[in-house]
Specification:
The protein is an all-alpha fold. It is built from nine helices and no strands.
Length: 197
């Protein structure tokens, strides 16, 4: 029986995801692609949920590799780029947003998240606003990616009647919504600063 490592299982599972979508991912199908028996996977993952969690973490690696913000960085520019990168990682795999939805950061991902919160607070954003703002932006980003992956052809659709306004593309709608979230966070921060004066 061929010996496999955890990384190979996750890579093959992500390749399967790209081929058949989330509903087609199973430990049996991953084992078949690797040329091993299904029980071989249980050395690395107790069940499918553990495998899906590892896949979700691996799918976000490109986002997690971005440098953390540093003291003195412009928090508004960082906020926009952080969620653009997050969205890009979600869209990099078929059903990537569905795979990620509901996952909970742990280990290094959790530590990175805490450092991002700390950066916003140090930049002058109130602690509760930093937490709420990042949570809202994260959920908005996942929702935006879910919508795009559920209906990728919507961007090419033309309106039925000339009088109807042309709907923005998925990317345009994401950018507009992200700017609105940032504007709200800026306003909340300005109000909190004014109260302290």
């Amino acid at each position: 029986m061929a010996k496999i490592d955890r990384g190979a299982v996750v890579r093959e599972a992500l390749a399967l995801l790209d081929d058949v979508g989330l509903d087609g991912v199973s430990t049996r199908a991953v084992a078949r692609r690797l040329g091993v028996e299904q029980p071989s996977l249980y050395w690395h993952f107790k069940n499918k949920q553990e495998l899906l969690a590892a896949m979700a973490a691996a799918a976000l690696e490109r986002h997690e590799e971005l440098p953390l913000p540093q003291v003195g960085d412009d928090w508004k520019s960082w906020f926009l780029e952080n969620y653009r990168s997050f969205r890009g990682a979600l869209l990099a795999h078929r059903d990537g947003a569905r795979l990620h939805a509901g996952s909970v950061p742990d280990g290094a991902s959790r530590e990175r998240l805490l450092r991002k919160f700390a950066f916003l607070i140090e930049a002058g954003v109130a602690e509760q606003d930093a937490i709420t703002g990042m949570l809202a932006a994260s959920r908005f980003t996942v929702g935006s990616a879910l919508e795009q992956q559920a209906d990728p052809d919507a961007d090419g659709a033309s309106p039925d009647a000339v009088e109807q306004p042309v709907a923005p593309t998925h990317k345009q709608a994401f950018e507009a919504g992200l700017l609105m979230l940032l504007t709200g966070l800026e306003g909340s921060t300005a109000t909190a600063k004014a109260r302290r004066l």
